[in-house]
């Protein structure tokens, strides 16, 4: 019976970078997810509510009414007729896209109602009102 000669294998030089690559891929995925999490718009002081439903989708349109009453569509200032024209154009391309309305807490209620009335005339059904969390 012959005995097999056992010789330990020598490790080749170098650094094992597999764990490093794994960590980098996880960081990359987290970065991609967090970079797409916000909707472009104007910073406003949102009113507080106890519960909020998120309607953030890739085709979500954000309408913002700031504290001076100026209306913005995805961070671009528009008038009510321009807003109606752009939303009708978008509805022709994508019939059922969600719209979120962000109104500053100090803006007149009538200005937000004008925007909501416009959305009803255009017959958009997926409308959300953005609020902040109660503290």
From TrEMBL:
Subunit architecture: The accessory proteins ExbB and ExbD seem to form a complex with TonB.
InterPro entries documented for this protein: ExbD
Record organism: Herbaspirillum chlorophenolicum
Record membrane topology: Single-pass type II membrane protein
Protein name as annotated: ExbD/TolR family protein
Keywords assigned by UniProt, alphabetized: Cell inner membrane, Cell membrane, Membrane, Protein transport, Transmembrane, Transmembrane helix, Transport
Membrane-crossing residue ranges in chain numbering: 12-33
Protein function: Involved in the TonB-dependent energy-dependent transport of various receptor-bound substrates.
Compartment annotation: Cell inner membrane; Cell membrane
Family designation: Belongs to the ExbD/TolR family.
